[in-house]
Every structure is written in C-alpha cells, then in structure tokens.
Amino acid sequence: MKARVSHGLSAVILAVCFVLVAAFSSFASVDGALSEAGESVISGWAVDAEHPDKSVPVVLCVYTDGSKEPQELVKVTADQYRTDLTNSAANGKHAFSYQVDWDKLKGQSFIIEAYAETDEGRVRLYGSFRYTKKEAAVTVVAAGSGPAGDAGPGSKGKADDTAKRGALLGIFETTAYCTCTQCCPNGTALTYSGTVPQANHTISADITKYPLGTKLMIGDVVYTVEDIGSTIVGNRLDIYFPTHEEALAYGVQSVEVYAVE
Ligand SMILES: [Zn+2]
Question: 163 exposed, middle or buried (CB, 10 Å; 0-12, 13-18, 19+)?
Fold first, then answer.
C-alpha cells in the first residue's frame, strides 16, 4: 500500500503494483496521516491526490488493551481547513478532528489508527498513537530513549560520543516502521541499501536530499540514512524499530533534525 515503505527488491514489485492499481482506481493516490491523539482530540489529514477537490472519509480505529482486533471508533470526514495543507492540497481543506471522550470507552490503553475509505477499500494513514487513561497521552517517547538494557546488536549506533551536532536542518515529520508485513507489505529483512536495519541507527529518508549514508542527529542519537519509503519525501523521516509495537508507540512526531559534524 501507498502507506508504507518499499524495501529493496520489493520496491520494484510494489512499483509495478502501484502502476497496475493506479491504472483503474484511485487506490494509490490517497495520502494522509494521523497527527495527534490527545486528551480530547484525535486529528490528522487525508487527501486524494487525484481528486483534491473531494473530501476523504476517514475511519478511526482503536486497539484496546493490547487486542489484536481493532474496533471502529467513528467515521469522520477530512474536510477541515489546515494552513499547512495548502501546499500539498490546493484548498487545504483536508484535515479531520474528532472530540474524543476516553472515559466512555471500555479499557485502559488504546492504540489509535486511521484509515481512509476509498472505492477499493481502506487505506491506512501514516502514524498511530497510544493513549492511556489517567495519564497524559503518551505521544512523545524521546527518540533514542527506547527500552533500556538491550545489549543486542540492535543497540549499536546509540549515542555516538564522537558525533557533534551540526546545523539545524529543520523540523521534520517523523514516523516509525519495522520490517513486518504491515509496515512493509512485501517485506524484506534488508534495507534499500542492503544493510540489516538496526535500532537507533537506521532511518528512511528522501535520498534525493539526504543520500544513503548521510548521518542525521535526532536528540542525542546519530542515525544513518539506509532506507527509503514511497511517501518519505522532503522533510520526512521514517525511523526503524525492531518491533511493530515500538513503531506503533512512536506514532508521528515532529522533531528537530540536525546535521552531524
Ligand atoms: Zn511493523
């Protein structure tokens, strides 16, 4: 699906699929993201690039207390104006928001995802958020501060003492992925550059701007561009996590990204 990264060889296979699908449907043209799931509001945006004049229906789904089966929370329409959407979508009226009352939902802990409804079925929008009752919405896990004590190879590359923070490159929209089939439909264990992805190390970037091998700093972690994604364009990064759960927990975060000296 458009929503996810294509890795290595699968990029070719996916590209072919996209062309075939796009030839007779609008399936592949929907883009969007879940931007926030907080105390009282769930919001995001969705746009059909081929029909930017149309409003996309979006279904919000929740996984409750670790359930593997999502439940529909509500259907909304992405027709609200958001200034930052005017670039990618002519009229900018492609945002959605939903006033949520968590207390009315059974359960304690929720993972929220959003799906655009198209004629051909549902397309998952970028990002997901975790919300836990009685606590503030857990949307920010500082990049690189994942579970401690992981002494495996996945922890390599963390907190590089010799790296110096360079110039601020900007505020990037960052998402997260793992190598599961949800994140990478025709998943492979290797990155686009042929490496084995590593936690706190591997990121996907727009390699026309940040070529493979480029080092980028988020927090105190130095990441290396090793992968690509079909929607990872411009100031967007996709951060690799070893498990889908961690990727889900990361959600979508706007973070400062620095060059490395
Ligand atoms: Zn995954």
Answer: middle
Separation of first and last alpha carbons in the chain? 37
Q: Residue 97: beta bridge partners?
A: 43
Residue 138 per-residue DSSP state: B
CA 255 / ligand 1 centre spacing (Å): 21
The residues, ordered by sequence, that sit 6+ positions from 87 with a Cβ below 8 Å of its Cβ are none
Q: How far is the CA of 117 from the centre of ligand 1 (A)?
A: 21
- pLDDT tens-place string over residues 35-92: 888 888 999 888 888 888 889 999 999 988 877 788 899 999 999 888 777 665 567 7
- Which domains does the chain possess? 8-132 (2.60.40.10), 153-260 (2.40.40.10)
77: which 2 tokens?
């329409």
Q: Per residue in 97-151, pLDDT tens?
A: 999 998 888 888 888 888 999 888 888 887 777 788 875 444 444 333 333 333 3
| Residues paired with residue 116 on neighbouring β-strands, in sequence order | 58, 123
